[in-house]
Design goal:
With 379 residues, the protein is an alpha/beta fold. It is built from 14 helices and 15 strands. The protein has two domains: 3-58 and 342-375, Urease, subunit C, domain 1; 59-335, TIM Barrel, CATH 3.20.20. Helices cover 36% and strands 22% of the residues. It binds N-(iminomethyl)-L-glutamic acid and fe (iii) ion.
């Protein structure tokens, strides 16, 4: 067994009791085996001197849609000239995804995962939702599970064109044969509860069907308008409800009381010109807030957690330390994980060495590639 000492860390964000300065930690069997002052570090087989740089836990991106083909850059350009974002654009990607071979879907996934890792992300949740047939949803998830444990079945993304006249029939398909085919490859079930997608009754039917099959529940809600989705997620005790852009006072109290994580996706507001949610108010109300990329070809095509952190600090009222917590430990909570998102004893040693003396630089230097090195238990 080899032990590795990572030392000369100017600032070590552990997400434990405190952030350490002049720190070090030991990695054994991919796990954190010791954390403390560099001066007190034990002897190890190998030593990595990070030269007075900051280290944070690897980002936990708890919301992405990487099983897709095609490009919607023209839609983005039109949006920047005033065309509003609408859920219907999803159908463009559905057509391209259905036409893509398995190998193309896999290559696209692998490319985006590598892009994420270069930017410090070490745990990735990703969803189906651009196939919307039994075959296409199942094959997307079968590809995804080869690369991540955090796979989510999102057959209830939108009603596909061929079911436009029979949305109830589509919900029956999702909760029946499609769930049967997808469930073996998925850890989570999700739905898009929004005007133009699925209403609360339909979302409830989908979520409860999946949860009855042993999948965990998460939900897209309150992205484009206020609505019942956040309260539904809290009532069902879901791990997380994502977007939370338009919240009423009783949504905030439901989040606080249920413990359901509010996952904010500021890249979406950046790319759709909707207003940013008030993360400060949520944290002050006692809500657990996660930050995730929502990387997808329509509403937000960034894979960068540092960019999301910069937006959360500049536009949503989080402190830099809170934003880093939400992008690491917060994401872990949203996935019901306690082995990632922290650098404390026994956690996976997934970590990011920043080309900076402190994690504040992630927000202070937006757009600058500050990830010097990514170390992870996956090796
Ligand atoms: O999370 N909100 C629904 N789904 C995605 C967008 C998908 C798309 O536009 O292709 C989202 O924003
Ligand atoms: Fe999404």
């Amino acid at each position: 067994m080899t032990s590795l000492l990572v030392t000369n860390v100017s600032e070590l964000t552990t997400n434990g009791e405190r952030t350490l300065t002049a720190a070090a930690f030991v990695v054994e069997r991919g796990l954190v085996a010791w954390v403390g002052d560099a001066a007190a570090a034990p002897a190890t087989d190998e030593v990595q001197d990070v030269g007075g740089r900051a280290v944070i836990p690897g980002f936990v991106d708890s919301h992405s849609h990487l099983l897709f083909a095609g490009d919607r850059s023209a839609e983005f350009a039109a949006r920047m000239s005033g065309t509003p974002y609408a859920a219907g654009g999803i159908r463009t990607t559905v057509a391209a995804t259905r036409a893509a071979a398995d190998e193309q879907l896999e290559a696209n996934l692998v490319r985006h995962l590598a892009e994420m890792r270069r930017q410090g992300t070490t745990t990735v949740e990703t969803k189906s939702g651009y196939g919307l047939t039994v075959h296409d949803e199942a094959r997307a998830l079968a590809v995804a599970r080869r690369y991540t444990e955090e796979t989510t079945f999102l057959g209830a993304h939108v009603v596909p064109a061929e079911y436009a006249d029979d949305p109830a029939g589509y919900v029956d398909l999702v909760t029946g044969p499609m769930l049967d085919a997808a469930a073996p490859h998925a850890r989570w079930i999700d739905a898009f509860c929004e005007t133009g997608a699925f209403d609360a009754d339909q979302a409830r039917a989908v979520l409860t069907a999946g949860m009855d099959r042993g999948l965990g529940g998460r939900l897209h809600a309150n992205q484009l308008t206020e609505g019942p989705g956040v309260r539904l997620a809290c009532e069902l005790g879901l791990a997380a409800v994502d977007h939370c852009t338009y919240l009423a006072a009783d949504d905030v109290s439901a989040l606080r009381d249920s413990g359901t994580v509010a996952t904010l996706l500021p890249g979406v507001e950046f790319s759709t010109r909707h207003p940013y949610p008030d993360a400060r108010a949520l944290v002050d109300a006692g809500v657990t807030v996660a930050l995730a990329s929502d990387c997808n070809p329509g509403s937000c095509y960034t894979s960068s957690m540092p960019f999301c952190i910069a937006l959360a600090v500049r536009e949503m009222g989080l402190t830099p330390a809170e934003a880093v917590w939400s992008a690491t430990a917060g994401g872990a909570r949203a996935l019901g994980r306690d082995d990632v998102g922290r650098l404390t004893l026994g956690a996976r040693a997934d970590h990011v060495v920043l080309d900076a003396p402190s994690a504040v630089h992630l927000a202070y230097r937006p757009g600058v590639p500050l990830v010097a090195h990514v170390g992870s238990s996956a090796r």
